[in-house]
Automatic annotation (TrEMBL):
InterPro entries: Apaf_helical, LRR_dom_sf, LRR_R13L1-DRL21, NB-ARC, P-loop_NTPase, Rx_N, WH-like_DNA-bd_sf, WHD_DRP. The lineage of its organism: Eukaryota, Viridiplantae, Streptophyta, Embryophyta, Tracheophyta. Residues 247-256 have a biased composition (Basic residues). This is NB-ARC domain-containing protein. Belongs to the disease resistance NB-LRR family.
């Protein structure tokens, strides 16, 4: 009874035998990606066969026999050996009735999907995703990308030249198709011949010129084919729009209904202009190869073969993270120098660390920068990656200020920059790392130092390769970093290369490995690179080839500066990975970038090989992780804790070396020196003096494929908001026609405010980034960009999405800002290939999007935030959205409001936004997500109850829930969720009691995995009860904030709870029994009785903050026998602390901003106290002086105690806004309760009295 048979991606399959006796009901046969398959016997006997689809089977051959009579559709794609067979079959039906269309109505959508090629394209004549299949490598490095393009174009032509049998044919069209086939065969031979060439045989200028001409020929051929395919795309979209006019009158389908059948494949002739271009290309090819025998045409040329790339990525948690070997002693030496008494005697010191590239200077500087003793000694630290040939004092000053403050800086005036830096360093000890300084003029260096001359002590660590720079700027003897000794080099190599090899093979390859390490010369980067390229290699011949390679004997020169080890590592990359790596040369040295951005570039340029049904994004991640594993890309230290990446300078040199020819990266100040010919362009702005980019000054040739503007100013963290200086872009009107072959256009971090209508002329564009640009609207002409796959519009200035976006049928990633006041048109639902859609805004009226449009967007991955749910008027629309089908969604946000920023939309709507609570309940019930959801956030929900599915145990992966601004009277039953780890309930207006309903119907342990629970602004909350003994077995953190009506908590909470934060719960008189509570934070309005009745035997840290009512604190060692850390901050009415001297375990005491606090002079400090910090407590000045003179011997800490202290204080931090403002002294007098006469107290506003060893001298203190 088998009706459908699909065979795909089998490398070993050579022959298939089928017959009607065994498969009498077979109606559809699809064979795809079987590159070894040569024959299918019995095909003509299948009497029920209606659909035959054969693709990517280059060796397939059929005998010249008629096809089954019932066959309605035959599609042959990328099968060059079947061309003659297809023409013969075509001749049999010329003049007769054409083959009928395959009746897709008789099959459900799931079956049709199974018959597809596991690609996202709707077209049967060709497959858009094939442009990701770049394969064979051209040995000449300059032709690397062009070589892949030849393969792409040949394959695509093969697809175009195998139209469905039954299409019309004329003599003229037959001639056009013959020319196209000739071009396809020509490209195949060109590719094969280029692969056979040895770069050493192409030494003459004439040969190199011909090779360059071949590369340009390949680009032009691909452009011709791409433009024809664009016409097919546009024709198909127009046909669909025409058909859609009649569909709109039909009733909307509900979830579970069959999808409408796709229209039949397009059959249009070869356009005259394409035919003419093909003839011109063939003529051009013959001229190029007239004297090149290797490229003569041959009737027996084999088809282009595909190179296998078996990606092997380790499953370690941090790919590419290597243990640092051999630099511990260097780190200790530098730390000792920085903290030496001699250094402390100088006002400003500069310590240069000098060494050749790849020695690990940056790694060593990071080790020093993060050292505990250094962090303790210097109150202010900063890190600046200079990485520029030009020492731009203005740009570096901005980077220093941003690193010191952690805030953006858009100041252009040097004097203002100087004043702000001086304000930061005045009277403090600071440590600054200037990494990778190439050159600097003495006057600029002295000017920069003058910005920091008011510091109490300044220490600047500079890493450089240039000894002349070291001698000019250093005030201390330079620290020369040496090569690694052999044994340490061997240890580093072993931990990388032999990590996945068993002991026997380890011993087998050790001789080769030691030989390779010896040739690396003790250079860590070289060892990492070559070791990574051999990771997991089990072929002895490969080890021998690497160890005996002639490249080891070729020293770097001015023209060829790349280290042999890096070249060998590059040579061992698969061709696909090489092409991805080469594009890194478009970024400047030291530039931080995101993985996703680079992956999208690769995808849109067709550099990712398709593996069966694997998503391009997953393939891109594999490629990227492979580059990390090969030490070609490394993780960067990001101040915002984002996962950013960077290439080492020497790796960057390698990328530039292998990309010579078609790729150009140019700084704005050097436009006049630009070459005349290039295909990939990045324009770099790294100086504020060249922020206005006028492309009038740069001649851009026709045929450019990438135009990327790189804002390298302040790029230390790759986070959008830290790019303080935008760049202004001007593209003259007469330049746009030269950009019509663009595949990628990147305006990220620029001041672009609008796009011209001519953006629609870039018909081959796949990638458009407006990330953090200043654009407010996108022109409607963007609807002509049918190839577009990535539209990155993450900018908070964007107000509206163009209505024509629905025509971008290939769009896969539509990145939108979550916080922008965004207006979204109807038609988004037509973009069925969408995989990224973080924001979906519902509006009222016919112009705006409707939630029902989400029905077909089943491939959305990652995050989805739906705003404007209150505008839904029909529950059927919410049901049609079919969120339960979005199985790839991980994060779902449901917002009944219009989002954070309200948009004053110009598209009027007569609908009233006021929905009843009952309607909202029905809508919420219909928005059930898929069981795979991991995070769920609900905002501004006004229903009285939660949906029946909310909290169901079937949501096995749901780990985080946020409920914000709700009107329900009872909390949802969440106790049954098996993996819920974080729960935040914020601003509930009607909840008075939290009881059994919160647990749900669970009979055993409720909330089995919950680790963090937060209640905030539960305005009418009085009581929390019905917490049983086994509930919350995993909870670590509980926060209850701004609930001033709360009176009762459960008598007992879980023994796993270790941290409890309470804020503004003035009516709460007692706390539950918590057996193992170690950290307690009490903030703002707290009942004094609660504080004085505390009894937690295991409590180690206690913090009282922002309390304006507490006047007396009573502490007792009997109630707090293990209390080690006590912090009391911003308590303006506090007068006394009793029992302080009895706390036998107290080690850290910190009191801040308690203006009326007095302590008894005759009560000694606790004997174990190691650190005492008193800040802005004027009445404690005399007491502190007496205590310090009396007990100075005990105010010390062991060498390793600083880290422990910082961890203890960090544990007390609640990370809330008020606490951060308190930490930096930003609270107003009204907020912290201080009286206006406090300024008259003796102690100044900025004075801090602190005792306890921090590594400084007595004089410094």
């Amino acid at each position: 009874m088998l009706k459908i048979l699909k065979v795909c991606f089998s490398k070993k399959l050579v022959h298939i035998e089928i017959n009607n006796k065994n498969l009498p009901m077979l109606e559809a046969l699809a064979i795809s990606g079987c590159r070894g398959l040569s024959s299918v016997a019995g095909l003509c006997s299948l009497e029920s066969l209606k659909l035959l689809n054969i693709k990517d089977c280059p060796n397939m051959q059929f005998p010249l026999q008629p096809l089954p009579q019932q066959l309605r559709q035959c599609i042959i794609s990328n099968c060059p050996q079947l061309h003659e067979w297809a023409e013969w079959q075509q001749s049999l039906i010329d003049g007769e009735d054409k083959l009928q269309e395959f009746d897709k109505e008789s099959y459900d959508q799931e079956t049709l999907d199974a018959l597809s090629d596991d690609t996202d394209d709707d077209f049967e004549i060709f497959n858009e995703d094939e442009d990701d299949n770049f394969y064979d490598e051209m040995l000449d490095m300059a032709g690397l990308l062009a070589s892949g393009i030849i393969k792409w174009t040949a394959n695509k032509l093969s697809s175009l030249l195998s139209p469905p049998i039954g299409s019309s044919s004329t003599d003229e069209q037959s001639a056009s198709f013959r020319d196209l086939r000739e071009l396809q065969r020509t490209l195949a031979r060109t590719q094969r011949s280029l692969n056979a060439l040895d770069e050493r045989n192409i030494r003459g200028e004439a040969e190199r010129l011909r090779l360059w001409e071949l590369q340009q020929f390949a680009y032009d051929a691909q452009d011709a084919v791409d433009e024809y395919r664009y016409q097919l795309l546009r024709r198909r979209i127009d046909d669909q729009n025409n058909q859609g006019q009649s569909r709109r009158s039909r009733k909307r389908k509900l979830k579970g209904d069959k999808k409408e059948p796709e229209p039949p494949p397009i059959k249009i002739p070869v356009p005259d202009d394409l035919a003419a271009r093909v003839r011109e290309l063939l003529k051009k090819f013959n001229e190029i190869t007239k004297e090149w025998d290797d490229l003569r045409l041959s009737e027996f040329d084999a088809p282009i073969r595909e190179e296998d790339y078996d990606i092997k990525i380790s499953t370690t948690s941090h790919i590419g993270d290597f243990n640092i070997v051999g630099r511990e002693e260097d780190k200790e030496n530098i730390v000792r120098i920085l903290l030496s008494p001699g250094a402390a005697q100088r006002h400003m010191s500069v310590l240069p660390v000098v060494g050749m590239g790849g020695l690990g200077k940056t790694t060593l500087a990071q080790m020093v920068y993060n050292n505990e003793r250094v962090s303790k000694y210097f109150k202010l630290k900063g890190w600046v990656d200079v990485s520029e040939d030009h020492f731009d004092i203005k740009a570096i000053a901005r980077k220093i200020l941003m690193s010191f403050t952690g805030k953006t800086c858009d100041i252009e005036d040097v004097e203002n920059l100087q004043n702000m830096i001086m304000a930061q360093v005045e009277d403090v000890k600071f440590f600054l790392v200037l990494d990778n300084v190439w050159n600097v003029e003495k006057k600029n260096w002295e000017a920069l130092l003058s910005f920091m001359e008011c510091a109490r002590l300044g220490m600047i660590l500079v890493t450089t390769r240039n000894e002349a720079v070291s001698k000019m700027i250093g005030t201390m003897k330079s620290y020369d970093l040496n090569l690694l000794p052999f044994e340490e080099s061997w240890q580093l190599f072993k931990q990388i290369a032999f990590v996945f090899i068993d002991q026997n093979m380890h011993e087998q390859f050790e001789g080769f490995g030691r030989k390779i390490v010896g040739k690396c010369g003790g250079l860590p980067l070289a060892i990492k690179a070559i070791g990574s390229s051999l990771r997991g290699e089990t072929n002895e011949e490969t080890w021998k080839d690497v160890s005996d390679s002639d490249q080891w004997e070729l020293p770097p020169t001015e023209k060829d500066p790349v280290l042999p080890a890096l070249k060998l590592s590059y040579d061992r990359m698969p061709a696909q990975l090489k092409r991805c790596f080469v594009l890194l040369s478009l970024l400047p040295k030291g530039y931080y970038f995101w993985k996703e951005d680079m992956m999208n570039f690769w995808m849109c340029l067709g550099l990712l090989k398709q593996y069966s049904s694997c998503r391009h994004e997953n393939i891109g991640r594999l490629y990227f992780d492979d580059l990390i594993q090969r030490a070609m890309v490394q993780r960067a230290e990001s101040d915002e804790k984002l996962e950013c990446f960077v290439t080492h300078d020497l790796i960057h040199d390698l990328a530039i070396f292998v990309s010579q020819g078609d790729l150009l990266r140019i700084n704005t100040q050097y436009f006049q020196e630009a070459p005349k010919k290039f295909r990939y362009l990045s324009v770099v702005v790294n100086s504020s003096d060249h922020r206005n980019v006028d492309l009038n000054s740069l001649t851009i040739p026709r045929g450019v494929r990438i135009l990327k503007f790189v804002n390298a100013q302040d790029n230390q963290r790759c986070s959008s908001k830290l790019f303080s200086s935008s760049i202004n872009i001007y593209i003259p009107a007469d330049t746009w026609p030269n950009l019509i072959q663009l595949r990628a256009l990147d305006f990220s971090h620029t001041a672009v405010t609008q796009l011209p209508n001519s953006i629609g002329d870039l018909k081959l564009l796949r990638y458009l980034s407006l990330f953090q640009a200043r654009i407010t609207t996108i022109p409607e002409s963007i609807s002509d960009l049918h190839y577009l796959r990535v539209l990155d519009a993450r900018t908070d200035s964007l107000r509206e999405i163009p209505q024509g976006i629905k025509k971008l049928v290939n769009l896969q990633h539509l990145n939108l800002d979550l916080w922008s006041p965004l207006c979204m048109p109807c038609g988004i639902g037509a973009l069925r290939k969408l995989q990224t859609l973080p924001r979906f805004s519902i509006g009222g009226g016919s112009w705006h999007s409707n939630v029902a449009e989400l029905h077909h967007l089943v491939n959305i991955h990652g995050e989805l935030c739906i705003t404007g749910l209150r505008k839904i008027r029909n529950v059927d629309d919410a049901q049609t959205a079919n969120l339960v089908s979005k199985k790839h969604l991980q994060i779902l946000r449901l917002d009944w409001s219009d989002g954070v920023c309200i948009n004053n939309c110009s598209h009027s709507s007569s609908q009233n936004d006021v929905a009843t609570p009952e309607l909202e309940e029905e809508i919420f019930e219909s928005l059930r997500p898929n069981k795979n959801i991991e995070e769920l956030e609900v905002v501004n929900y006004n229903g009285y109850k939660y949906p029946s599915w909310f909290g169901a145990s079937s949501f096995m992966n749901l780990g985080k829930i946020i409920l914000c601004q709700q009107s329900c009277k009872f909390l949802p039953p969440l106790g049954e969720l098996p993996q819920l780890r974080m729960l935040s309930i914020i601003y509930m207006t009607a909840v008075e009691h939290v009881r059994q309903e919160f647990r749900g119907s669970v009979t055993t342990k409720a909330f089995p995995a919950l680790e963090e629970l937060e209640f905030e602004e539960i305005l009418k909350w009085i009581e929390w009860s019905h917490v049983f003994q086994d509930d919350f077995p995993s909870i670590r953190l509980l926060k209850i904030k701004d609930s001033n009506e709360l009176r009762y908590l459960p008598e007992r909470l879980s023994s796993s709870l270790t941290k409890f934060v309470i804020k503004d719960c003035s009516k709460l008189a007692s706390l539950p029994a918590i057996p193992n509570l170690t950290t307690l934070v009490l903030k703002s309005k707290i009942n004094e009785q609660l504080l004085n009745d505390l009894h937690f035997p295991h409590l180690r840290s206690l913090k009282l903050l922002l309390s304006r009512s507490i006047e007396h604190i009573l502490l007792d060692n009997q109630n707090h026998p293990l209390l080690e850390v006590l912090v009391i901050s911003v308590c303006p009415r506090l007068h006394s602390i009793m029992g302080l001297s009895t706390l036998g375990s107290l080690k850290i005491l910190k009191i801040n901003r308690c203006p009326y606090l007095q302590l008894s002079f005759d009560k000694p400090l606790p004997p174990q106290l190691r650190r005492l910090t008193i800040t802005k407590c004027p009445l404690l000045a005399d007491w502190l002086e007496i205590q310090s003179s009396r007990h100075q011997y005990q105010l010390h800490e062991p060498e390793d105690g600083w880290c422990e202290e910082q961890q203890a204080l960090a544990e007390l931090n609640d990370a809330s806004e008020d606490e951060q403002r308190e930490e930096f002294g930003l609270l107003s007098e009204d907020e912290n309760g201080e009286d206006n006469d406090e300024q008259d107290h003796e102690q100044s506003e900025d004075e801090e009295l602190q005792y306890g060893s921090d590594g400084s001298t007595d004089e410094d203190e």
